[in-house]
Amino acid sequence: MSEVTILLVDDHPVVREGYRRLLERQAGFRVVAEAETAAEAYRLFRETAPSVVVMDLSLGGPSGLEAIRNIRQWDGQARILVFTMHQGSAFALKAFEAGAAGYVTKSSAPSELVAAVTAVARGRQAVSADIAQELAAERLAGKNSPLDDLAPREVEILRLVASGMATEAIAEALHLSPKTVQNYHYGIKAKLGARNDAHLVWLAASAGVLGAGFRFEP
């Protein structure tokens, strides 16, 4: 396999440095750029055309889901590996729906990340063992997530709304009109059966959209 060039996307510089060192210790791997926001990831992808994007989902402002959508709209062959703290299978499914080729959690062994980058660079899919196990268990149990009926863009808007961001700020961040954001907001509430915005926040928190550290206070 020829050299694998990597765009590393994470909003923590120290974390990026650690993963850069891990990846560049592998023969044939080279990190060609680093980004800390979804917008920067999109710009640097266009500038560097990496073999693989290693993408965190938790970024400042629009998340990695939005970055995946934008990159894949620009290049339908882009190979994106999600590398994140989000351990829920619902997020993994949304990442794949947005266009990711792999999903590895940060609790995985370093060797799993390296193997996943190699697999994605070769055009294959990759899932860390913990997520594969959760997907299998939930399928066998017939469990459903509140996110199942939402598109990746709707999940992103749900996350921003539930985190308290104003309609105008969401519109600016996602390059939409405020009216479009409002329409998404109402549509998401209808799909989830949310009685009001407080109930919507509770549903978002329950689904893990706001992160593991979030606590809902009614």
CATH architecture of the largest domain: 3-Layer(aba) Sandwich
Number of domains: 2
Question: Mean pLDDT, nearest integer?
Answer: 87
What's the arrangement of strands in the largest beta sheet?
2-1-3-4-5-6
Q: Which CATH class of the largest domain is shown?
A: Alpha Beta
State the helix count: 10
Measured between the Cα atoms of the first and last residue, the distance is 54 Å
The CATH superfamily of the largest domain is identified as: Response regulator
| Percentage of residues assigned to helices | 40-55%
Strand content: 5-15%
Round the Cα radius of gyration to an integer and report it: 17 Å
Q: Which class best fits the helix and strand makeup?
A: alpha/beta
In short:
This protein has 218 residues and is an alpha/beta fold. It has ten helices and six strands; from the N terminus they run βαβαβαβαβαβααααα.
